[in-house]
Amino acid sequence: MSSKRIAGPEIERLIQLLAKVPGLGPRSARRAALHLIKKREQLLAPLADAMAETAAKVRVCSSCGNVDTTDPCLICTDPRRDASTLIVVEDVSDLWALERAGVANARFHVLGGTLSPLDGVGPDDLTIGRLVDRVAEGGVAEVVLAVNATIEGQTTAHYITDQLAGLDVKVTRLAHGVPVGGELDYLDEGTLAAAMKSRTTF
Fold first, then answer.
1. From the candidate CATH numbers 3.40.1360.10, 3.40.50.12780, 3.40.50.720, 3.30.410.40, the one assigned to the domain spanning 67-201
2. Cα(33)–Cα(44) distance, rounded to whole angstroms?
3. Fold for domain 9-57?
4. How far is CA 160 from CA 40, 61, 157, in A?
């Protein structure tokens, strides 16, 4: 038995799109949509404007893979950052998590995921080649593998270590303050800070 439509197609579309946001299911999406509609002037209209402007201006940094409104991004163009340390993360959310924690004043490299043969994700599907090129260009003394403590994350870390073996660079990883099976985006700042300070050679 199909569920009855409770509102016009515009509202239904808003609910369906909100339901695709991570962390929001159909019920939460309906509540969020109703709240936005009730606060049309204060929330819905400004949110729609912000989303339209972001959609028009957002760029993926050609250097590190971060998302920003400029290319290269603000992190890559910041002269105060330590360009000799390159922190490798799986996704932009991990980069943002480390930035929120304020644990490193370094440059980043976003892989775009992890190696996963079962899902058909190989080295060519990630930015591992670009990472090796960045290190080979010189100026990088340490590569910090800040990947998630999952099987896929560790497999990716081992593969990257092998790819960097012939280059004059120190390869480290986050300490085991990051729980096995844990994801960086869900960790608190204290855990991230401790993990960065206690990183070890890979």
1. 3.40.1360.10
2. 9
3. Helicase, Ruva Protein; domain 3 (1.10.8)
4. 49, 21, 5
Nearest to 92 by CA among 117, 67, 58: 67
Asked if residue 114 lies in contact with residue 148, where contact means CB atoms within 8 angstroms, the answer is yes
Residues 135 and 128: beta-carbon distance below 8 Å = no
pTM, full prediction: 0.79
What one-letter code names the amino acid at 27?
Answer: R
pLDDT tens for the 202 residues of the chain, in order: 456 667 789 999 999 999 999 999 999 999 999 999 999 999 999 999 999 999 999 999 999 999 999 999 999 999 999 999 999 999 999 999 999 999 889 999 999 999 999 999 999 999 999 999 999 999 999 999 999 888 899 999 999 999 999 999 999 998 766 777 778 888 888 778 878 877 777 7
